[in-house]
Amino acid sequence: MLRRFIRVSNNLKLKHKLLISYVLVVMIPVLIIGLAVTGYFRQQALDNAIGQTINNVDKIKSQTATLLRVPTDISDILMFNNELKEIVNKRYSSVMELTSAYLAYKDFQEYKRQYREVAGIRFYSDNPTLINNLEFIPLNEQTKESYWYQKALLSTNTGWFYIPDKEDNPVHKLSLVRKVPFPEYRTEGVLLIEINQDELNELLRQEPFETLIADEQGYVVAAKNTDLVGKTLDELDFGVDLQNQAKGTLEADFQGEPSNIVIDELRPVSSMNSLKVISVFETKDIVKDANKISLIGMLFISLVLIIALLLVYIISFLTSNRLLRLSKHLNKLALGDLNVTSRIDGDDEIGQLSRQFNYMVKSINELMTQVVETTEQNNQLEIAQKEIKLKMMASQINPHFLFNALESIRMKAHIKGEAEIANIVRLLGKLMRKSLEIGSGKTTFQAELEMVSSYLEIQKFRYGDRLAFQIHIDPGAEKIYIPPLIVQPLVENAIVHGLENKEGTVHVNIDIRLVNDVVQVRVKDDGAGITPERLAEVMQFIRGPEEQEKSRIGLRNVHQRLTLTYGEPYGLQITSVYGKGTEIAFDLPSGGEQHV
Length: 596
Hints:
By secondary structure, the chain is α+β, with helices and mostly antiparallel strands. The strands form four sheets. A five-stranded mixed sheet has the order 2-1-5-4-3, sandwiched between helices. The protein has a five-stranded antiparallel sheet with strand order 7-6-10-9-8. A hairpin with a 2-residue loop joins β14 and β15. α2 runs antiparallel to α9 and α10 crosses α16. It is found in: Cell membrane. It is a multi-pass membrane protein. It comes from Paenibacillus illinoisensis. Its EC number is 2.7.13.3. Keywords: Cell membrane, Kinase, Membrane, Phosphoprotein, Transferase, Transmembrane, Transmembrane helix.
């Protein structure tokens, strides 16, 4: 799978890779994060609204409980009110007597006047001599069968009910209902204290969301929207059965709109039943601001992503275009066009590749030029070697005759006691034989120094005490291969030019040492020396391109063969002090030529 992915990726163009990478690595994650942040803010708004609603519901419960405490306390007082007990249990013989009793009893009106929470007080009794004056009401069948009356008779605790009666003067308010027993009369009645609807609604009017209070039958007893008072929860189209719903938070469609509903219960002191406090808010109202901010954020993010996508496309196009131009240059180079030049600007990697490409083309041209020059130099070296051999061969004519003649002269001198002459003739023959044996191959330092030694002995015979020489070579350097006739021309130069204009003995030292894998060759004399001007001319001549006829087997020839064989750093180095002597030196890599 991974190999297939890599293969497919390698087959894509660079700009497509950049665009796909941008979409996968930047665009999709940013959109996912944006959606997640949007959802987070939306949920935070909902959670905050729910938390606020719960706090508001708790506040309403507290305020409502305080408001309902007043009717509760009044009912506690009236439970033991003797005047009330007398007036509801007495059998009246005439209307005048009853009217006098009603006028004498002022407690209900006093409580209503003193407490704004109370809208009215009624007492229902099974005394047939009573007349309904909206405070003392005789029971009828409708009242006896009412839900709230039946519930009141079952308990001595208070009960809170919305009274939806259809009498001439209906209550239509949340009311405290409580049974009042009269044991001494073996009778009982029901006390009803109406709550001031305005006071109850006032508790909900400042709420930010739709809030209402319902009794256990589902009647709305108070609401922020007062038009809802008296309706049942089923009529309000919550989409769920709130009547039997436990307290908590739930989601539902209120009047066709997705909403969140917070439900809590309020059980007043000494109450047989509880009230439900319900707060509803539409989800869209709460998340409207969050959605607006999220929409603006998503639009901004989308705009940024689109601009970034455009920039990535432009950058990828420019990058791939530059690479295509570089590819065309490479194709031209591959076809043999060595004059191609890449003109891709910039300091990035592609610009660096362009410059490296130009350097490569330049290096190839230089290398080809160097190869041509090296080939020419090698040809010249081969020609020079052959010329050396030809010059040597030119002097041999009949080598056997020459060697036989020299041997006869040596024997003649030896017989006559001329040992010195005999030795010089032997050395001369040995030198000539070595010279004639030299070809275009290689020799060793040991063989080269044998020729040098023979040459110096012959020159010693010639100059006598005017010449003194010394040869030193490290044992490790004797078997190292070198081109032939490398040291001998330097020694010859030291004798020929060192003895000119110099009286007395001239010392020639040949020193060959092996130091850190480098062979150091030094030929030094204490002869006449060279002036700085002449030394500059000599150095320019041996390193120059032209060659004079008489210098073919000289310093220039040695210098060129060294540089052609080992490289430029290994040519001749000449130092001289006029009147004190000259030193000619060169170094060779000990690994440049194999040992014998």
